[in-house]
Amino acid sequence: MKRYITLAAMLVLGFMLRVQAREVFPINEGWRFFFKSERTSDNARHVTLPHSWNTDPLAQGYWLETTGNYQNGMYIPEEWASKRLFVKFYGVQSVADVFVNGAHVGTHHGGGTAFVFEITDKIRFGADNALLVMVNNSWRNDVLPTSTDMNLYGGIYREAELIVTDATAISPLYFGSDGVLVHPHTVSLERIDGEIEVHLTSKNETSCTLDIEITAPDGQPVFMKRQKAKIDDKPFVVPFSVESPELWSPDYPALYTVTAAIGEDSITDRVVVKTGFRAIGVNVENGFSINGQRIPVHGVVLHHDNALSGGMLTAEDYDADLQQVHRIGANAIRSAVMPHAQYLYDRCDEEGLLVWIDAPLHRAPFLSDMAYFATPEFEQNGLQQLKEIIVQNINHPSVVMWGIFSQLWMRGDDVTPYLRQLNDTAHTLDASRPTVACSDQDGALNFVTDLIVWKQSVGWNRGSTDDVTVWRDLLRKNWSYLRSGVQYGGPGFLGHKSYTAQAEPRSNWLPEEKQTRFHEEYARNLQNDSLFWGVWIESLFDYGSARRPYGVNGSGLITLNRRETKDAFYLYKAMWNHKEPTLHIVDKRRRLRDNNKQLFRVYSSVGMPVLTVGTDTLAMTEYAACQYRTDSVELKGTVEVKALAGGLRDSVTIRVGNVLKPKRSPGLRRTTDPQTTN
Predict the structure, then answer these.
(1) Residue 445 per-residue DSSP state
(2) What superfamily in CATH does domain 180-278 come from?
(3) With 50 as the cut, is the pLDDT of residue 535 above it?
(4) N or C: the chain end with fewer CB closer than 10 Å?
(5) CATH 1.10.260.40 fits 297-580, yes or no
(6) Range list of β-strands (E), 55-126
């Protein structure tokens, strides 16, 4: 017997009053979840959104790509019979079919963006109503991404809400956005000129009275306009100008409030959005700039989960992660593969962080994958998701570039015409931001977007990390006219320890030391090079990957559970964070060492450290910016290592010599690194 839980606490105002304007009610409580394979809802679990079955105890540790059903009930009062009702879901992974009272109201393909369906015609007013959402996160060749390394956590993994409006309203149906889009065309210290795009919808009217107001960061109105607006299939556009504006920048993240309201004598609908005004520039000579001021971009890649919440990141999760972004000294984040929740970008707006949002046209490093299918269904879904990403995030001043693709192969069907279509679509929807792509291949695809970020890994599996300088010099010689950034990184696990850093590799053996040395050499050769407008580190945090041997991609500088910070984190903190000084002895976790000859490395942002080992002071030399090293010294027994610089102190006690090594299995042999094999 099906039972539907009334959302009485959330809808109580609907019983008491005639709603005079838009009302929004969270519908996160009272859901009942069961897998489609269970065939009945008799044993459905009561869950609260956000929810994912990949963190459900019934999954028993297995990664599930399957279909799940979510049921809820809503009592809709008779007083709302003249209203319009919409359901909005902020993230469902990956395909959602929504039913109301058994009637299908729509399907959404794509897990990273919000979507809205109108349900007015399916509602029984003055009665209980049944809401069902069928969710599938299985692989499909018509839903992007078709190739990804990160986990796609199946379920309604973000919040949901019910929107109630009058018959005439600002439409919530335009690609899941608020229906109010701000387009600045010219931005200067003297004046801003632009347009406000408002999407209107009505059941019975062809026009309405529209009020637009812009208020400055101090709350003072700087623009007001009232006019009759025609309601048709096209958005209504209101030109605006602001004199002597306060421009948004990383150092001064000034935010304006834009209010759109409709109604002749009283307001019947209102939408309020925050935005900021800034001019973005990127060129070969001056690199990346905001409002004409050059900003060396120090970015970190963020994926979409942690060990506690899985893919259901909360506001508290985002706040904690942003603390680490600031702690390392990064001024930019890249939302890998798909967008994060709106809350993250709201915070970036307020804190002055720069954001690159990826579209989900992405290739993971697995030979079994195909990232591009030359079918109408695939291409239409990619266009749809790109439009949703841009329209839903266009008002965020922190978002400074749209990612078009990542790490595609130039083999098989020619993807370049489709990339041009995506790139043109982005420019049509938003001419104020550049497009960007991340590439690890040669070919025509590198000349489509405004910016290109080279994913580089020379010296990880073969060769020397110093070979990256050969690549860099060739890039400068042959393609210096490209507006290039660079991204790099490699996995390192804390539990994969060796007694000597030169120990022979083992199968699935990915020690932190290898990651650390890779970052040291790349930082030495690529940081602060004027050839690149930005440097991106992949990634700030480890992330879940059921396709990996350990279920985790270990490329992060911080572990998936956020408890352990790897050595390479302190390297970038020393170079990037100018507010908090850094002094860090490298390789402190390796307390037991079998080689009597030892050298020591220290990261310092406060100058040359003084290093003492036992009772001896060792001379240090500057190897690269913020990197200091000693020569090899003979040691034996237990010694304390201390570093002092700029009033800071770091220390570790190590044991050298007479260390029992773990025996290796005779069946193990040298292998290629599984984390980066293509």
Answers:
(1) G
(2) Immunoglobulins (2.60.40.10)
(3) yes
(4) N
(5) no
(6) 67-76, 84-89, 95-100, 103-109, 115-118
Residue written as token pair 């190897």: 623
| Distance from C-alpha of 471 to C-alpha of 458, rounded to nearest angstrom | 8
Using alpha carbons, select from 161, 142, 143 the residue that is nearest to residue 93.
Answer: 143
What pLDDT does residue 9 have? Answer: 32
Distance in angstroms (rounded) separating the CA atoms of residues 388 and 54: 25
Q: Which two tokens stand for residue 457?
A: 């890994």
Sign of CA dihedral 358, 364, 365, 370: negative
pLDDT in tens, 25-56: 999 999 999 999 998 888 899 999 999 999 86
Q: Tell me the residue type at 642.
A: K
5: Cβ–Cβ under 8 A, 6 or more apart, which residues? Answer: 29, 30, 32, 72, 73
Q: With a cut of 90, say whether residue 436 has pLDDT above it.
A: yes
Q: Confirm if 122 and 86 have CB atoms less than 8 A apart.
A: no
Predicted local confidence at residue 59, as pLDDT: 57
> Domain spans of the chain?
8-166, 180-278, 297-580
- Coil, strand or helix: which one is 127? strand
pLDDT single digits (tens) 563-590: 999 999 999 999 999 999 999 999 999 9
Which of 221, 210, 117 lies closest to 170 in space, CA to CA? 210
Task: Give the span between the Cα atoms of 54 and 63, in whole angstroms.
Answer: 6
Domain 8-166 has CATH 2.60.120.260: yes
pLDDT category at 463 given cuts 50, 70, 90 is: confident
Instruction: Give the whole-angstrom CA distance, residue 415 versus residue 372.
Output: 7
Is there a contact between 604 and 670 (Cβ–Cβ < 8 Å)? no
Query: Is residue 612 within 8 Å of residue 597, measured between CB atoms?
Result: no
CB 361 within 8 A of CB 406: yes
Global pTM reads 0.93
Mean pLDDT of 146-173: 97
